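Progress note, sequence design subtask.
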């Protein structure tokens, strides 16, 4: 008999050792997303659990669990024969199972290593593994594992997550009654839920308190005191995560693409992802996206996307992948669409100025013309012989953009997108107006437009700033190097022109009181005179850069946009209104770059007069006068009839003296206004004698 018992014990130990897979003892831990101030945005988990050390759980809380679940925990070796016999006796008396005999160690084994089947073979396995756990680990280690592993109902695992969920407290702040309530949930978390069944929960809590008295943890007076307490729940509010779903998915994607953490690893690894999200701005953008008044009126099905990036760091402050976004859904922040005129600064005007052959007031052709079978039209069907680049950008004229791309070459323009790692497919001049095979995404445009407000340099947009492990140690941090896309001079020139587009051009609709530069864009529908496929606004302030896109996921004869870029432009400004970005009143010119003055707008001189006067020594002078234009920068060229070269040039004044004229043969003179920006002359005005 003794030999048989020894052999049985040996078999149990051998089987228990074999069955223990220590990898299963590594608990799945909840990962979190927090902003840079540490404010929690969401938790990510398959099981909502935050592991904690036993030393951080108050003794009275430990005693509550031991009193109701395993009062002889520190005396047995994985199996409690006394409790087992007592449970068997009570069950036989009641004719049903009313009491369990499993120790805490056995519960750990059952939950970690075994299935829930109710067979004798499973029970034998449970005992074998439990005895071996007791041999390998200390009691404190087993109790710590138990408290971190058990289920508390409502998707909550572990003592820390339960403490935060039910009481909004850390475990070390739990009092006796609160600890007893949590311990009481172990028997049946659903049945004794203080949320669903408060009366049953209170009765169960009081039973735990009574049991604590029996085990010597509480005095009779203390039991009475705590049993008289209400449940005193302080439930953690279930946060509405809908506004943050797009951003959360971007964290998952970046964790995989950049840091090689799979979706499952993120859910189970207990990481803390520190992100660049501005919670208030994200919520504001979401609320505005839900308001149909901010979108074209014809249908509530019109979709949209929004992304806003910190211009200094490249951290994404807000992102919306759609108006009705669902988790792991179609994130329109990343989807390529036809960019319309928003591509002009990147593909055409910026590259042209980088050649140093063009400046903001260079004259571009604006005549309707044929480019080898391609005939672009200005959106307003207005044309002129020439137009400045400044006005072409401000008013989003199409013909000058196509003409200029033809002059510098499509390959030159595409090179800048390639430098930004943005691939486009096109072989025609229609690219100047956004005619691309696949298009570009909102986040692509944000990345490239950043160059204009950041001295010509781009940086990789990203959501994750830092990743911390369960110990709070940084295991990864965002380090993205800036890359030069345009020269500082080109960037400043473009900033000033895009600022003009907002102040007085195609993007002037809506209100924004801070410094803002940006570009509108629409894409037309082939064969259709009205309506648009896509509507855009891409803009930047001295601190942020962002984009809004609107359109249908699939455009057809009955699904297209009316109202064009005015909607995304107005919405962008609404989102940024009353934010920190609005505090900037102006863009700061970088050192060493030339300024871009306001455009000189010339009109014709009304009249000019000439009066001949006598001066000492018998000399005669022709005094020419005129009313100067309001812009003091306008120059005035004085021409003598018959001469192709001016005899003089004056700036900002309305008079000039022609000395030593022949009184017997007075010449005719003309005054011609001259624009030094565009190097253009206005209409000449004859100086009439008086």
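Output:
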């Amino acid at each position: 008999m003794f030999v048989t018992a020894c052999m049985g014990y040996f078999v149990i130990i051998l089987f228990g050792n074999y069955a223990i897979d220590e990898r299963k003892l590594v608990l799945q831990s909840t990962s979190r997303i927090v902003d840079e101030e540490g404010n929690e945005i969401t938790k990510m988990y398959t099981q909502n659990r935050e592991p904690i050390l036993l030393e951080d759980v108050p003794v009275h809380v430990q005693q509550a669990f031991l009193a109701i679940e395993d009062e002889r925990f520190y005396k047995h070796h994985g199996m409690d024969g006394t409790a087992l016999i007592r449970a068997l006796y009570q069950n036989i008396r009641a004719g049903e199972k009313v009491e369990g005999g499993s120790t805490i160690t056995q519960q750990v084994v059952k939950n970690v290593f075994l299935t829930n089947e109710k067979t004798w073979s499973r029970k034998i396995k449970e005992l074998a593994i439990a005895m071996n756990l007791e041999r390998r680990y200390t009691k404190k280690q087993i109790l710590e594992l138990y408290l971190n592993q058990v289920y508390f109902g409502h998707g909550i695992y572990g003592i820390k997550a339960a403490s935060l969920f039910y009481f909004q407290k850390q475990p070390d702040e739990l009092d006796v009654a609160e600890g007893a309530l949590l311990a009481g949930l172990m028997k049946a978390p659903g049945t004794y839920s203080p949320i669903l069944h408060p009366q049953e929960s209170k009765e169960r809590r009081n039973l735990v308190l009574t049991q604590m008295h029996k085990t010597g943890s509480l005095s009779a007076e203390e039991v009475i005191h705590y049993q008289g307490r209400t449940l005193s729940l302080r439930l953690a509010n279930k946060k509405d995560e809908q506004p943050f779903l797009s951003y959360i998915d971007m964290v998952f994607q970046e964790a995989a693409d950049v840091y090689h953490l799979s979706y499952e690893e993120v859910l189970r690894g207990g990481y803390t992802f520190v992100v660049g999200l501005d919670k208030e701005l994200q919520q504001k953008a979401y609320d505005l996206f839900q308001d149909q008044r901010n979108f074209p009126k014809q249908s509530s099905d019109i979709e949209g996307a929004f992304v806003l990036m910190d211009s200094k760091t490249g951290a994404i402050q807000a992102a919306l992948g759609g108006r009705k976004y669902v988790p792991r859904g179609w994130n329109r922040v990343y989807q390529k669409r036809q960019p319309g005129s928003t591509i002009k600064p990147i593909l055409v005007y910026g590259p042209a100025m980088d050649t140093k052959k063009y400046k903001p007031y260079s004259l571009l052709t604006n005549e309707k013309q044929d480019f080898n079978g391609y005939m672009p039209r200005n959106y307003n069907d207005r044309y002129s012989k020439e137009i400045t680049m400044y006005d072409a950008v401000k008013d989003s004229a199409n013909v000058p953009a196509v003409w200029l791309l033809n002059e510098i070459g499509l390959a030159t323009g595409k090179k800048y997108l390639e430098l930004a790692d943005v691939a486009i497919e096109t072989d025609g001049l229609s690219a100047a107006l956004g005619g691309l095979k696949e298009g570009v995404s909102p986040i692509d445009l944000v990345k490239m437009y950043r160059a204009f407000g950041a001295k010509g340099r781009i940086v990789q947009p990203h959501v994750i700033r830092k990743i911390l492990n369960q110990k709070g140690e940084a295991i990864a941090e965002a380090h993205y190097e800036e890359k030069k896309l345009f020269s500082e001079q080109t960037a400043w020139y473009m900033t000033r022109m895009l600022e003009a587009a907002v102040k007085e051009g195609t993007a002037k609709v809506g209100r924004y009181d801070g410094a803002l530069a940006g570009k509108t864009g629409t894409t037309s529908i082939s064969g259709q005179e009205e309506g648009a496929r896509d509507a855009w606004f891409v803009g930047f302030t001295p601190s942020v850069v962002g984009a809004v896109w609107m359109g249908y996921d699939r455009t057809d004869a009955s699904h297209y946009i009316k109202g064009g870029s005015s909607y995304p432009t107005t919405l962008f400004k609404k989102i940024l209104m009353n934010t920190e970005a609005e505090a900037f009143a102006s863009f700061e010119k970088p050192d060493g770059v030339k300024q871009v003055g306001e455009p000189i707008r010339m009109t014709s001189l009304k009249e000019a007069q000439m009066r001949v006067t006598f001066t000492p020594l018998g000399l005669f002078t022709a005094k020419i006068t005129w009313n100067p234009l309001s812009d003091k920068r306008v120059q005035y060229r004085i021409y003598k009839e018959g001469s192709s070269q001016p005899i003089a040039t004056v700036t900002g004044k309305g008079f000039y003296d022609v000395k030593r004229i022949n009184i017997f043969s007075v010449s005719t003179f003309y005054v011609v206004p001259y624009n030094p920006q565009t190097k253009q002359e206005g209409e000449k005005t004859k100086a009439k004698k008086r």
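The radius of gyration is 39 Å. Work on this subtask will continue into the next period as scheduled.
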